[in-house]
Amino acid sequence: MSSNNRPLSPHLDVYRLPLSALLSIVHRGTGAFLTLGTLVLVWWLMALAGGEESFISAQQFMGSFIGRLVLFGWTFALFFHLSNGIRHLVWDAGYCFEKADVEKTSYIVLGLSAFLTIVVWIVAFSSGAGA
Questions:
Q1: Which pTM value belongs to this model?
Q2: Under a CB-based contact definition with an 8 Å cutoff, are residues 74 and 40 in contact?
Q3: Hey, what CATH class is 19-126 in?
Q4: What would the pLDDT profile of 30-68 be if each residue is shown by its tens digit?
Q5: Which sign does the torsion angle of CA 85, 107, 66, 119 carry?
Q6: What are the structural domain ranges in the chain?
Q7: pLDDT average, residue stretch 11-26
Q8: Mean pLDDT for the stretch of residues 7-22
Q9: Quick one: signal sequence residues (predicted)?
Q10: Is 81 annotated as a binding residue?
């Protein structure tokens, strides 16, 4: 076997993925993260049914920095997955396939996800639920 020093193609560090490709990867990741977040939700509901002591321990975790970070990430993942899923439904209907439309809807998905996440957290903290 001959040994040549030619690089194997394609190298990911040579090519720049388009935003829509990155969002596709993130869409899959948020789907997996939503599954893990749902397990946390089930744990919280089981703690609620398990009595005061188990509920207090679950609430302490949810109120900690790590717990709030997980909840914030889960909220963003939920809205991102929802927004990008709606974009996929629009694509399934045969619309917005032009390169400019794909780019524009990518930014809309990101902006809408961030906006909805921030709104939910502002409402939660202003109503006293996040305090």
A1: 0.84
A2: yes
A3: mainly alpha
A4: 999 999 999 999 999 999 999 999 999 999 999 999 999
A5: negative
A6: 19-126
A7: 85
A8: 78
A9: none
A10: yes
- Rounded distance, CA 73 to CA 90, Å? 26
The whole-angstrom separation of Cα 34 and Cα 131 is 24
77 Cβ neighbours under 8 A, 6+ residues apart: 30, 33, 34, 37
38, 85, 109, 119: CA torsion to nearest 10:
-40
Closest listed residue to residue 109, CA positions, set 83, 72, 130: 83
Q: Residue length, the chain?
A: 131
Please state, in angstroms and rounded to a whole number, the distance separating the CA atoms of residues 80 and 16: 22
Cβ contacts of 43 within 8 Å, gap of 6 or more: 58
Rounded Cα–Cα distance for residues 119 and 11 (Å):
40
pLDDT over threshold 80, residue 124: yes
38, amino acid identity = T
96: alpha, beta or left? (left if phi > 0; alpha if psi -120 to 50): left
- 101's CB contacts (< 8 A; 6+ apart) are 95
- Please, how many CA atoms are within 13 Å of residue 83, restricted to the half-sphere of its CB? 22
Structure tokens at 54: 């188990």
